[in-house]
Amino acid sequence: MNKKIKNKVLEACITSINEKIKTLEFAVEDAQKAANEYGNPRDRYDSFRAQQLRKKDMFSKHLQEAIDEKNTLNKIDTNKENSQVVFGALVITNKQNLFISTSIGKINIDENDYYAISSFVPIFKSLRGLKVGDTAEFKGNKFKIIDII
Length: 149
Description:
Helix content: 40-55%
Number of helices: 3
Structural class: alpha+beta
Number of domains: 2
Strand content: 15-25%
Number of strands: 6
Shape: elongated
Strand order of the largest sheet: 3-4-2-1-6-5
Radius of gyration: 20 Å
Largest sheet: 6 strands, mixed
Order of helices and strands: HHEEEEHEE
Low-confidence stretches: none
């Protein structure tokens, strides 16, 4: 394995998060626009505008989380040599290929699946600090680390 695949996985993660950000920005604008076009509530039982503003707030929160994820991805140095399982490492095991970054999920590159996972998930806690050749057990499955990029 080489560093090119790590760069491709990181680029795919950034592309995915950028698409999520665009979608959420549109949703925030759309909810605000709907609330503005509706105007003030007609009577005290008319909650449409308030509902739209709550929706906007919810999408705004998700948007901020996506921006935070993008900032986390931007901290990853793909040129850094990793000798153990740490944040930013691409970990190749006998079961799965894991990119320790943010919880984006499955990414397919060159017909191989990679799972972008957060450093807060339980499987990372089982693998953290291990080196090539080490084995960890997680939920009854044994993961042998084949390579760390």
